[in-house]
Design brief:
It holds the Pfam family KCTD_C. With about 240 residues, the chain is α/β, with parallel strands linked by helices. The protein is built from 9 helices and 8 strands. The longest helix is centred in the middle third of the chain and has 14 residues, at about 115-130.
Length: about 240
């Protein structure tokens, strides 16, 4: 005996053609409910969002029969508003940009990349950091060192050596050789060939560590003894505060 569509188990994958559905579509995006039209969702045929509602859909429904998309629902309203009116969002730019990339809505992606926030991050800051050798790896190394030293402590610190030129790198190595400390615990950044200064890089380090959820500050590190150069020329102490 066949089961009618009214008695299909809830939450199952939808396998019927969307052409049999109402042009009005109810969505559950990460727990946020939206109502729109098929034409709005399919406005940009080459997008991943349009593909979700074209032909044989590979979407599941929630307990109320709404199509479910497992993405942050808060920012989908900006995606939907753009599809409806071509209005480019001016709020939550970074988060909306991530969603635009996921749904592969090319016109929105390009317009968001022209915004000051995305342009500054992708073209200016990211391009600079790409010229700093092992930048991402060094950020992770800093965090590992700080966590290893955090046992039964409120704070832990990491010494960072920042050098902009090859000449400074050689001087920094000489300074490291004169330090009375474990040189393996010193994280070295640089050299690089780009306009931003050492202070700019220090700000980037703080920004990216904080973006991972850590509370951090930094100041010049002054060696107590046995140091051949002014330590604040190269060395900085990054302080992680745990509670």
């Amino acid at each position: 005996m066949s089961i009618s569509s009214e008695h299909k188990p809830l939450g199952k994958q939808v396998t019927g053609s969307l052409r049999t559905l109402s042009p009005i579509v109810e969505l559950n995006v990460g727990g946020e409910m939206y109502t729109t039209t098929l034409s709005t969702l399919k406005k940009h045929p080459g997008s991943k969002l349009a593909e979700m509602f074209t032909g044989q859909p590979k979407l599941r429904t929630d307990s109320e029969g709404r199509f479910f998309i497992d993405r942050p629902g808060t920012y989908f309203k900006y995606i939907l508003e753009y599809l409806r009116t071509n209005q480019v969002p001016t709020q939550c730019i970074q988060d909306v940009y991530k969603e635009a990339l996921f749904y592969d809505i090319e016109p929105l992606i390009k317009q968001l990349e022209d915004s000051p926030q995305i342009f500054g991050e992708l073209v200016a800051r990211k391009q600079f950091l790409a010229r700093v050798p092992n930048y991402s790896e060094n950020i992770e190394l800093m965090i590992r060192i700080a966590r290893a030293e955090a046992v039964a402590s409120r704070q832990s610190s990491v010494i960072v050596c920042v050098v902009r030129t090859e000449e400074d790198a050689a001087r920094c190595q000489d300074a490291l050789n004169s330090l009375d400390m474990d040189k393996k615990s010193v994280v070295k950044f640089g050299p690089w060939k780009a306009a931003p200064s050492i202070s700019d890089l220090l700000d980037c380090i703080q920004m990216d560590v904080e973006a991972k959820g850590y509370k951090i500050s930094f100041q010049p590190h002054v060696a107590e003894k046995g140091f051949r150069f002014k330590s604040h020329d190269f060395f900085y102490r990054f302080l992680f505060t745990w509670w």
